[in-house]
Write a structure and sequence with these properties.
0% of the residues lie in helices and 48% in strands. The chain is mostly beta strands.
C-alpha cells in the first residue's frame, strides 16, 4: 500500500519514525574468503591485519558463535598487530536518527585477558568497549542523531592487541530509524510505502 501524508508548516522539526528502518549499509562478511591477514571487499584495513574466519571451532564455539553466522572477522589478524577497518566508501546520511548494530564477542584467547576496541562513524561518534576474552557473542547497538546531511565512514579499531587474537565481529548494519522534516519547509508531501 502507498499513502501520502501532508506536512504543514511547523514551529519545531518533527520526527517521523518508520515502522521498519531503512538499511543504509550492511555487511555479513559472507562475500569474503576465509584467510589470515585478509583484505576485505567493503572495508579498508589499516595499522595491522584482520583474519576472516569460519566459526564452530574450539575457540569460537564456547563464545556462542554457531555455523549459522558463517564468516566472521577477527580484528587482530595473524601478524601480531591489531587493525582498524573503515568502510571503503563514505556513506551519505540525511538528517535523522540512525542505529548501528553488530555482533561482537571477546577473543576467546586466555592469554589475552581482555580486549578493548572502538567503533563509530567518523566525525559523528566514537564508542569504546572493553570485552573479557570469555565474553559471549552479543548484539551491540548504538543509536545516534545526524543533525545535517553528511558523508561518513563506519569504523572498528582494535586498540590493544598483538597476540593474533582480537575481538570478533559480524553482521554490521546501519539503519536509518527516523528522519527529520525541516521547520523551514512549506507544506510538504511525504510518500509512505510498505504500510499494511
Amino acid at each position: 500500500k502507498q499513502f501520502l501524508i501532508n506536512i504543514e508548516d511547523v514551529n519545531e522539526a518533527p520526527t517521523l519514525s518508520p515502522v521498519t528502518g531503512s538499511t543504509v549499509f550492511s555487511d555479513d562478511f559472507e562475500s569474503e574468503v576465509a584467510s589470515h591477514n585478509a583484505a576485505l571487499s567493503k572495508w579498508d584495513v589499516s595499522g595491522g591485519t584482520v583474519d576472516v574466519m569460519t566459526v564452530g571451532d574450539s575457540r569460537t564455539t564456547p563464545l556462542g558463535w554457531t555455523e549459522s553466522f558463517g564468516l566472521v572477522v577477527d580484528l587482530d589478524g595473524s601478524s601480531s598487530n591489531g587493525a582498524a577497518i573503515s568502510t571503503k566508501s563514505g556513506i551519505s546520511l540525511t538528517p535523522g536518527e540512525y542505529l548501528l548494530r553488530f555482533n561482537v564477542s571477546g577473543s576467546g584467547d586466555p592469554h589475552q585477558r581482555d580486549d578493548s576496541f572502538s567503533f563509530g562513524l567518523e566525525g559523528l561518534f566514537t564508542e569504546n568497549l572493553n570485552l573479557p576474552y570469555t565474553s559471549s557473542v552479543q548484539t551491540h547497538q548504538k543509536t545516534f542523531w545526524v543533525e545535517h546531511a553528511t558523508v561518513a565512514k563506519i569504523f572498528f579499531d582494535q586498540d590493544q592487541a598483538a597476540d593474533n587474537y582480537g575481538v570478533i565481529i559480524d553482521n554490521v548494519v546501519l539503519i536509518q530509524s527516523g528522519f527529520v522534516i525541516s521547520e523551514d519547509f512549506g507544506t510538504s508531501t511525504v510518500q509512505v510505502t510498505g504500510v499494511t
